[in-house]
Amino acid sequence: MDPVSNSFNPHKLLKEEFVSNLNGSSMLEIASLSTIVPALFLLRRAFCFSYKSDATKKDDDAVAKSRNLGAYLAVVSLDFLFLIVPTLLVLTVLADWVHVLAIVLVVLILSLAAKRFASFASNSGSASQLRTNISSYRVNVMIVTCLCILAVDFTIFPRRYAKTETYGTSLMDLGVGSFIVTNSLVSRQARGISSMSWKAAFKSSSPLLVLGFGRLLSTRSVDYQVHVAEYGVHWNFFFTLAAVTILTSIIKIPPKYSGLFGLSLLVGYQWLSVNGLNLYLLSNERGTDLLSQNKEGLFSILGYWGIYLLGVQLGYHLFFGDHKPELKSKKWATIKVSCLSIIFWLTTVVLDSHVERASRRMCNLAYATLVLAQNLQVLAILMLSDCIGVSSISTLEEAINRNLLGTFLVANVLTGLTNMLVDTIFSTPLSALSILVTYAYLLSIITGIADFYGMRIKFW
């Protein structure tokens, strides 16, 4: 009997081919998408309310607690309608309108900001507002990631948004790089806190290693589709995060100089790439040794570590360094982040055109600058909240921010279950959108309930 027909995943090969040999989209489209999502978050915070508990006693009875939970989930549902549904529509059925939507939202945000510019220019930022903006930025990254990891398996999701095979730029290419940047900007090193010993770092990273091996074993056991060209035969996202954490702790670099070290690492890695390493990394030929079978994942650590070190210095310089009095001005902080984003975008265009095209598979220099450009753009837009008088994030954002890793793990489990139960590549657009909305709402409710009852999954 055909072993494929007995598999938990009989269409595994078709699903792998569905996400293979793709070339991505344009940088302009990525910039437009990176404008729409944070703009939606700003508008939600500007025009809607958050959940505020009225409970004052710890021994409230079950009925009162149930009512509070009902009110809380009602606000979470409202956030879902204002934040998640529009984002999902932009990533699917409205994908051809991203440039128009981006322009409309930019005009709307700027018009709101212009009305309050005078008060914005005269006030100075606070530590709490900075934390709010960074939290919202981290949640933005998480929400787009969680939506894309399932949506990519449906035909309703544009193939140009899926991960590229070798060279090119796409929305999903930014995923792991964005996780690296979000962690680096607020890391212990960026905040000037003494680094952990290598033993403590290994202990802190051990849950990520466990998750990495858990993902490897679970995908093998249920014959889940895995695109080998993404990280290699055995490597995955969790191993990359663990490797960067351990390297940063073993090799201690002062935050003032981490950017220079990171840039030197990226330039050296790029030199090796254009002098023959890229031919080896992009070749489909693999030996039997672990290095050859996982060459993309292992060599890309150099690029991701370089991104992390650059992010550490940016976080230190912009938010936590010795020159805080100057950067306490909300106006100057926003302007600096915006200017850095533009510089990185221009650098990416030059590198992509004249050195080597951006490659997530290798994590080369053009990819590194692309990730930094896009992430700083998102952060700069969210920092405009200071202009339009927004001080707090929405209830759903709060819930996700308090449980980032938990949200990501639940999203992975729900994605796996959906792929086991549904032939995603044969779903009609209407059924695909219905499944995605249901998945996103279930993820939002689970995250909300976990936050309501104080449940946390936090490993770093």
TrEMBL record:
Organism superkingdom: Eukaryota
GO annotation, biological process: GPI anchor biosynthetic process; protein localization to plasma membrane
Cellular component GO terms, alphabetical: endoplasmic reticulum; membrane
Keyword Metal-binding: no
Keywords, comma-separated and alphabetical: Membrane, Transmembrane, Transmembrane helix
Recorded GO MF terms: glucosaminyl-phosphatidylinositol O-acyltransferase activity
Subcellular localization: Membrane
Segments crossing the lipid bilayer: 30-48, 69-91, 97-118, 139-157, 237-253, 260-281, 301-320, 332-353, 365-384, 404-426, 432-454
Topology in the lipid bilayer: Multi-pass membrane protein
Coiled-coil region(s): none
PANTHER family referenced in this protein's UniProt entry, alphabetically: PHOSPHATIDYLINOSITOL-GLYCAN BIOSYNTHESIS CLASS W PROTEIN
Name of the protein in question: GPI-anchored wall transfer protein
